[in-house]
From TrEMBL, chain A:
It is a peripheral membrane protein. F-type ATPases have 2 components, CF(1) - the catalytic core - and CF(0) - the membrane proton channel. CF(1) has five subunits: alpha(3), beta(3), gamma(1), delta(1), epsilon(1). CF(0) has three main subunits: a, b and c. It comes from the Bacteria. It holds the Pfam family ATP-synt_DE_N. Its main location: membrane. It is found in: Cell membrane; Endomembrane system. InterPro entries: ATP_synth_F1_dsu/esu (IPR001469), ATP_synth_F1_dsu/esu_N (IPR020546), ATPsynth_dsu/esu_N (IPR036771). Produces ATP from ADP in the presence of a proton gradient across the membrane. It comes from Komagataeibacter europaeus. Keywords: ATP synthesis, Cell membrane, CF(1), Hydrogen ion transport, Ion transport, Membrane, Transport. Residues 3-82 form the ATP synthase F1 complex delta/epsilon subunit N-terminal domain. GO terms for cellular component: endomembrane system; plasma membrane; proton-transporting ATP synthase complex. This is ATP synthase epsilon chain. NCBIfam families: ATP_synt_epsi.
From TrEMBL, chain B:
CDD domains: F1-ATPase_gamma. One of its GO terms (biological process) is proton motive force-driven plasma membrane ATP synthesis. This is ATP synthase gamma chain. NCBIfam families: ATPsyn_F1gamma, PRK05621.1-4. Produces ATP from ADP in the presence of a proton gradient across the membrane. The gamma chain is believed to be important in regulating ATPase activity and the flow of protons through the CF(0) complex. InterPro entries: ATP_synth_F1_ATPase_gsu (IPR035968), ATP_synth_F1_gsu (IPR000131), ATP_synth_F1_gsu_CS (IPR023632). It comes from Komagataeibacter swingsii. GO terms for cellular component: plasma membrane; proton-transporting ATP synthase complex. Belongs to the ATPase gamma chain family. One of its GO terms (molecular function) is proton-transporting ATP synthase activity, rotational mechanism.
Length: 141, 293
């Protein structure tokens, strides 16, 4: 019993394969998609998607927010931007984070929706740095 | 009649034109293949997005207080038109079709007494519309100059449209673009972006299962899906425009190459005839000169 997993970015399909479990960073907490999961749609925060085959993490992807569609037989992740964890560039993410923090400082503190968007972007950049750093020891093994 | 020297120059210049047009045709063919592959690669995301939106839309149907992107402002007074052309010409009627469709649309809406605003995308349509409707243009952007169109260019355009809507700058938004049917045919098409017609649910995989749960709730989900959906639609039309531009250019350059070949044949015939006539004339002059002696 497995589910069809698809990770899609606006430009292309990044990953399409069967898996036993997918753990994804939901905006209100991490969620695991497994076979026979009740149909659920959720928004994602920036973070790492783990694709399990058996008990082993076979693939790890960083997603910078997006949506997920979980159903008993499939799980589709629509990522705003997605890449393999080992392809994450910590330096790029740090530069982006610095730029975002600067624009947060300068932003109009009364404009709450805009601040929320900036906060989400900062969270996503921080998660990307974390994901990139966690990938480095894994690669050296 | 043109002199032999002039004819030789004409033939030479048409020959180099033919070389240029056939090179452009081959470049366009290569670019077209890449553009088509990119458009195909972007389709799964758009399809999945449409399914999710249909699902969310179904569960909020009939509820009040829905986002303006979905329902519009409830008025039909100010129209925003977004024509999308290529940045470069020499692509047959590709850009002039867009320009003509846009102009007709503007004139029709104005005749109905609506206020029209234009936000052109792509240099060709911007330059054309500046001539007639410069007072209606509220901004413009070019497609990316690089080979690939990044998703961020669609994001920026989408965000611009969304923020214009939030400021109450327009009620209805229509996109004018070339729908890519095949390499030969691109049809200028008007597509209403705001208010959005919710897609029908064609998700047959899930037809028999219970309806979805949402996290966060439906309306939050909807308000974050809608702007993204707008961007995805814009991105899809940008990719379609890129593919269509190269398709149209390939067809136009193929015709130009063939016409140049015909022109060369015609000119060569004239050249040879002229040469023969000249020789005959000279012979006649020599013979009649000899007879006179």
């Amino acid at each position: 019993m497995s589910i069809k997993v698809k990770i899609v970015s606006p430009e292309k399909v990044l990953f399409a394969h069967d898996a036993d479990m997918v753990v994804m960073p939901g905006s209100e907490g991490d969620i695991a998609a497994m076979p026979e999961h009740a149909p659920l749609m959720l928004t994602l925060r920036g973070g790492v998607v783990d694709v399990y085959e058996g008990d082993v993490v076979m693939h790890r992807f960083f997603v910078a927010g997006g949506f997920a569609d979980i159903a008993p037989t499939h799980c589709t992740i629509l990522a705003d931007r997605a890449l393999k964890v080992e392809d994450v560039s910590v330096d790029d993410a740090e530069a982006r984070l610095a730029a975002l923090e600067k624009s947060y400082e300068e932003a109009d503190k009364m404009n709450v929706p805009a601040l929320d968007i900036l906060m989400d972007k900062i969270q996503s950049a921080r998660a990307e740095i974390e994901a990139g750093q966690s990938a480095i020891p894994a690669m050296s093994i | 009649m043109a002199s032999l020297k002039e004819l030789r120059a004409r033939i030479g210049s048409v020959k180099s034109t033919r070389k240029i047009t056939s090179a452009m045709k081959m470049v366009a063919a290569a670019k077209l293949r890449r553009a088509e592959a990119r458009a195909a690669a972007a389709r799964p995301y758009a399809d999945a997005m449409r399914r999710m939106l249909a699902e969310v839309g179904r569960s909020v149907a009939g509820e009040g207080g829905q986002p303006a992107l979905l329902t519009g402002t409830g008025q039909d007074r100010v129209h925003l038109i977004v024509p999308m052309s290529s940045d470069r010409g020499l692509a047959g009627a590709f850009n002039s079709n867009i320009n003509r469709t846009t102009r007709n649309l503007v004139l029709r809406l104005q005749a109905e007494g609506k206020t029209v605003k234009i936000l052109p995308v792509g240099r060709k349509t911007y330059e054309f519309l500046m001539r007639d409707f410069s007072d209606l243009i509220i901004g413009h952007r070019h497609l990316s100059a690089s080979k690939e169109i990044p998703f961020s260019s669609a994001t920026e355009l989408g965000e611009q449209i969304t923020s214009l809507l939030e400021k109450g700058e327009f009620d209805v938004c229509t996109l004018v673009y070339n729908q890519f049917r095949n390499v030969m045919t691109q049809t200028p098409t008007e597509m209403q972006l705001v208010p959005l017609a919710l897609p029908e649910n064609d998700n047959t995989d899930n037809a028999d299962i219970a309806s979805y749960e949402f996290e966060p709730d439906e309306s939050t989900m909807l308000s974050s899906l809608l702007p993204r959906n707008l961007q995805v639609q814009l991105y899809a039309t940008m990719l379609e425009t890129a593919a269509g531009e190269n398709g149209a250019r390939m067809t136009a350059m193929d015709n130009a190459t063939r016409n140049a070949g015909k022109a060369i044949d015609r000119l060569t015939l004239t050249y040879n005839r002229t040469r023969q006539t000249n020789i005959t004339n000279e012979l006649i002059e020599i013979i009649s000169g000899a007879q006179a002696v």
